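Explain this one:

_____
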Amino acid sequence: MPDRIDSMLDFLVLADRFKSVERRAYVADGSRRENSAEHSWHMALCGLLLAEDIGFDVDLGRALSMILVHDLVEIYAGDAFAYDAKARAEAVEKEEQAARRLFGSLPPDLGRRLEQLWREFEAHETPEARLAYACDRLQGFLQVYISGGKSWAEAMVTREMTRKRTAPARETDPFIDGLIERIYARIEKAGFWNDAGIAVGAGRGVTPRLSDA
């Protein structure tokens, strides 16, 4: 029992490093980049809000568990920018190695449980994983809107690139599709893209209000 307690405690201490994993998107005021712990919290809130409105049943507790675990491997692997194809391809093996190292540090039963959640999310085949995966794409898209498109402008992300990126979330459920389309409407109104469809950003973070649309 002491070994089990120490192992769990060491894992929780290690997990604090998750708060320092930098993502590409910015926080609303543009002063710094969002971190992966913030991303996961915002994802969880998305899941909590969406669970009753989507058209299929989910075990919300399992979906939220997946959301909590899905990016923990970034403690060792780091985050790969969504619009960097080379980095995304390289991330597959990095994250596999990170998963073995990370989940292997826990007592075997707990390590297997968390790894199973991580792999279920990656496969996004179960109802819970489909919701969690949709929330991942939704939150990433939403965060760029909230921060005024700054990270898209830096990387010259096009409107079409974002359409491809959000497609898995939009195809998950009509309600999620409607939510993302509402964000698109606000983005268009704020002038995030130039006439060629390349991101120029809104120049500042935006404060979402229902009256915006």
Summary: The first helix runs from residue 2 to 15. The mean pLDDT is 95. The radius of gyration is 18 Å.
